[in-house]
Design brief:
576 residues, Rossmann fold, 3 domains, 7-stranded mixed beta sheet, 5-stranded parallel beta sheet, 19 strands, 49% helix
Length: 576
Amino acid sequence: MPDAPFGAIYLGAPIELASERKVVAALAKRLEQNQTPYVLIANAQIGGRQIDCLVASASSVTLIEVKASRTPVRGELNGAWARRDAGGSWRPYGNAYQQAVGAKNALRDAMSAMAPIGDYYPDGSVVFASPPPAGSEVTAGDFKARVATLSDFLADFPAGKAKRPPWTLEQWHAFAASLSLTAVSSEEAVGGDQVRRDLERLRLYNAAVAEEYGRAGDRWLHEEGVPDALEHAALNGGGCVIVGPSGCGKTLMAKALANRLAGAGCPVLFFSAKDFAGEWAKAVRREIGLLTDDAPTELLRAVANGEDPVFLIVDGINELGGSEALALQGLRALARRLDAKVVLTSQGPVAGFDGLSTFEVTRPSAGLKQRIAERDGRRISGNAADLLKAVGSGFEAEMVGDVGSSLAGEATRLALIDQYVRARLGDYARAGAFGLRRFAVTLHGEVAFSMAEARFDELMRHETVGFDACDGMLAAGLLVRRVGRLSFSHEMILNGCAAFGLANAAADDPEAFGARLSTPLLAPLASEIVTAIENSDASLRVLESATSSDLIAAAAAGSLGRVAASNARNAARQSG
C-alpha cells in the first residue's frame, strides 16, 4: 500500500496481529480513496487502556476494538462473551462491546485532560476483521458502541455526526506526540520487518507441510466430490471427525486434507496418534522440528498472529490406547490455546468433541475398488476380480491388486493380508513375516502401536530374525520409522500379523479366549483371530464361547474361512 498523502498513521508498537493489520489497511485505503484528511492511531496505550485503532477526521472520531475468531462466538451487551471450543463447550471470552465502551471512555478522558471537549463523546465500534464463523450469535451493539463486520462497518465509513469533533487534526498530531507514538507510512503500519519475517515463516512451513503430506495424499483415490465435501466439513464450525473402519482410507484422506489446507495458506499441525508420547507440547515441537528450521516458539507466534484458520489433525485416535482420555483432554486444551480447528480420524465416535461434525467414510463403490486395484498399470481379472467384489475397503482393494491373482476367489481377508505381506517382502518373505508376527503380538500385549527402534532390534535379535530381514520390512513399506520409533504402516497389517500369534493362545484355552473376543482389546481383530485358528476343535469351542452375533454370522457366511464356517453352522444347528 503506498504512503498516505491525505493522512498520518501513528503506532504505539508494531502491529503483529493480522486482524488488526487488515482493519488498519482497510480504513486507510477508504480514507485515501475519499481524499479525507485524517489521523489514525493504532496499537497504543491511552488512559491505561490498550487501543487497537482510532481514526480522527474533521467530521468524526471513531474508537475501534478489533476482534477475530476462528471458532463461533456469542455475546450480548452485558455479561461475559463465550467462544465454542472443539469439545463443544462454550468458554469465557472477553466482552468486546464492554471493551470498546471502556476504551472509548478512556479516550474521552485523555482528550479532556489535554484540552476541553465539553460533552463530546467519540464513536465506539467493535469490528470483526472477518465475519464470525457459522453458529455465532453476537449483539449488534447500541448507541454507545456498534458491533459489526469490517465490510459492514466500511459501508458507511467515514460518516460525519451532527456534532462535529472539538479537535482539529493539528491537535490530534499533538496528541500523538504527547503519547510518544511513532509516525509510520501505511506500508510500515501493516507490513513491518517482523510481519514480513512471520509471513515468510508461515509460507515456508505451509510449503513443507504440503510437500510432506502431499506425497501420501496424492495416492488417495476417491469418489467424485469427496475432497470438497471433506474440506467443507473441516472448515465448518470446530472441525470434523473422519469416521470409518480400518482400511477405508482415513489416513490418506487426512494427509490429502493437510496438503490441501496448507496449500491454501492454513497452518496445519499433523499428528499420528500412535506416535504420541504423552505430551502435546513435545509433539508440537517435534512436528515443527521435522518440517522447518524455525524455533517452535517463533512459528507458533506467527501462527497465533495470523488470520487464516489453524488446524490440528490427529490420525488414528483408536491408536492412543490407554492414554486416550488424558490425550484428548490435552488436545482440547491445545486447540483452545491456538484457537484451532480439529480434525480427527477414528473408527467410531470420539467422546469429548461434540463441537465437531462427523464425516463418515462410505464403503467404496465397485468402480472405485477397480480403480484402486488397477492403479500403477495393474489389471484385474479371473479369481482376483471375484475377490475384489467381496472386499469392503480401499486398502483391501489395493492388496487384491497386488496379490489377488494368486488367491482363490474364496480367500479370506487374513489370507489376503498374509500374501500381501509376503509379496512385499520378496526374498525376506519367511523371516520377515515371522518377525512382523512377533512384533505385532508384542505390541498387542503391551496395548501399544509403536516401539523404540533400539528395543525393536533387541526383540528381533531375541527372535533370531536377521537385521537384513528387518531392513526389508522397512523397505517394503510394511513398517515405518518416525522419530526413533517403529510402527506398522497400517493397522490392518498389524491386526493381521497379530492374529496368527493370538490364534495359538486361543488354542490353549478356547472357552476363555472365545469369551474375551468381544472385549475392547480383542474385538478389533476378532475376525482375523478366528480365521487364523486351523484346529477344528479349538475353533468350535472358541465360537461356542463367543458372545458377538456379528462374529458368528461372519463365520457362518464363510468370510472367516472354511473351518470357522463349518463350526459356526454346526453350532447354530445345535443351538437351534
